[in-house]
Amino acid sequence: MVARREWHPLGMLLGVGLTFVSITARADETCGLPSTFDVIFINGFEAASPAALPLPTLAQLEQNRRARQATAPTIAITSPASGAAIADSKVDVVGTYSGPDNTGVAIGSAGAYTYNGQFVVPALPLAPGSTTLTATATTIDGLTSSASATVSSAQAAPAPLSLAANAYAGFAPLAVSFVAQLNAGSIQSVAVDYDGDGVDDYSGAAFPSPFAHTYSTPGIYAVRLTVHSSAGTTYTATQRVVIQDLAAVRSTVCGVFGYFRQNVAANQMTTAAQALGDTAKDRYTTFLNGLGAANAGTVATQLGTIANGVFGVDQASLIVVANVGSETVGFPVTIARGDDGVWRIISL
After folding, report:
1. Which domains, ranges and CATH numbers included, belong to the chain?
2. Is 50 helix (H, G, I), strand (E, B) or coil?
3. How far, rounded to the nearest angstrom, does the alpha carbon of residue 348 sit from its chain's CA centroid?
4. How far apart are CA 83 and CA 80, in angstroms?
5. What are the pLDDT digits (tens) for 187-230?
6. Considering the entire predicted model, what is its pTM?
7. Comparing C-alpha atoms, which of 108, 96, 100 is closest to residue 143?
8. What span, in angstroms and rounded, lies between the C-alpha atoms of 150 and 133?
9. Per 3-state DSSP, what percentage of the chain is helix, strand, and coil (rounded to 5)?
10. What would you measure as the largest C-alpha separation in the chain, in angstroms?
C-alpha cells in the first residue's frame, strides 16, 4: 500500500477541478499494453517493476490510423430474421460484427454486449406493430456500418411464457438468477437448458428453486425455458446472457487511454479527441488544440501511466499515476461505453 494524493492533470493545467485528498491505492488490477507506451506495473503500487515501452513516432501513429480506417466495420443481424413475428413485447437482437478493437455495436441508444465477434442487445423493448431494428457498428475513429431487420409484434403485454435475468452481462464467474412466469394455464412440466447446448440441465414439475446458474467461461449463452401446460400446449422462451472476457475488456479500456495519450504526445489533437466522451470533449478540446507541438509532449507525460483499476461491463474506474517532483501522485480516470457501444474517456 502506498498513500497518494488525488490529482487531475488537465484540471490542474486548466485551473479547474483540482482537489487534494488523502487516499490509499490497492493493487487489484494491473493495466498495460504493448500497443501503448504506458508503463506496465507488475504489481500495481506494491513493489512496482516498471517496464518502459517506447513512445511511438508520428509515422507509426499515422500507420496505425490508416490501418484502422482500412479495416471498416461490418455487421449482420442473425436473429430475429427480417419479417419475423415476435410473440412478445421484447426480443434479443443477435448478430455478428467485425472491426478493429473498441468497435461498438448499438441499436439506437441501446448498446450491445459483445464477445468474440458476436453481439447481443438483450431484451430490447418492442412497440406493437412493425419495427425496423437497425444495428450499427462504430469504431473509435468514427467509421460505421449498419444492418437492419424489420419485425412485427402484436404483443402489448408479455408473451404466454416470460423469462428474464437479473443480469444480462458480466464477467466469469457470474451467478445469474432468472424469473419466469407462465401467463397461460397451469404448469405440467418444466425444462431448462442453461448453456444453450440443446441438452436440458433441469427438468421437473415446477420452475427450479433456486432458478439460477453460475457461468464460469466467457461466451454467449442462450438460456432456453420449456414449459408444458396442463392443457397440452408447449411454450418456450429464450434469454441470452453474455459472459465477457475480463482480459479482453481490460485490454480495450486501457487501449483507450493509450490511444488518447499517444495522440496528445504527437500533437494529433483531432484524433486524440475521438477518445473523449461528449462532456470531456467539450471541456478539453479547446485547451488541447491550443497546446502546440512544443507543449503536447509535456502534457502527455503529465497524464501519467495506468497502475490499476476496477472494470465493469459498461464502465471502468482507473487509477493513473505520475511523478510530480519527488512525489508519486495518482488520479482517477473514468472510461465508459457510450450509446454507440464505443469505450471513451468521460472524466480525466
Report:
1. 3-69+246-347 (3.10.450), 72-157 (2.60.40.10), 160-244 (2.60.40.10)
2. coil
3. 19
4. 8
5. 999 999 999 999 999 999 999 999 999 999 999 999 999 999 98
6. 0.81
7. 100
8. 6
9. 20, 45, 35
10. 79
